[in-house]
């Protein structure tokens, strides 16, 4: 598997979907846990955000949360959450994710939640983007 690289931001950046209630709620909780600890949370839908990270496409962001590490390496989905939270002392417990079998299970659950997130939490799409998820 090839690791995606982008412009190194010098600190961790989490890209989330501000039109999704599940994603926005998770971002608020993550901000409480990692805010001020060298991690910035941004909505990929905000103007100019994706321009700063070549190679991180709108389509990738639609499918999964993205973690752009300080060195420009990009992780996504469940692994992005594990790495972002893993920098906190108790967050290291999340590294159980890397136990064989648990990673695959966590990725599968994340994928289902991400795919159906607008159905799970209801719509919150000022630009009509939710229509894409209800086809």
Description:
By secondary structure, the protein is an alpha+beta fold. It is built from 5 helices and 5 strands, in the order E-E-H-E-H-E-E-H-H-H. It has a 5-stranded mixed sheet. Strand 2, helix 1 (21-34) and strand 3 form a beta-alpha-beta unit. The longest helix is centred in the N-terminal third of the chain and has 14 residues, at 21-34. The N and C termini lie far apart (30 Å). The mean pLDDT is 86.
How would you describe this structure in keywords?
five-stranded mixed β-sheet; 36% helix
Spatial shape:
globular
Report, as a whole number of angstroms, the end-to-end distance.
Answer: 30 Å
* Percentage of β-strand residues: 5-15%
**Category by helix and strand content:** alpha+beta
Low-confidence stretches: none
Physical arrangement of strands within the biggest beta sheet: 1-5-4-2-3
Number of helices: 5
Count of distinct strands? 5
- Specify the biggest β-sheet: 5 strands, mixed
Mean pLDDT equals 86
Spatial extent as radius of gyration: 14 Å
Determine the fraction of residues in helical runs and give it as a percent range. Answer: 25-40%
| Topology pattern, helix = H, strand = E | EEHEHEEHHH
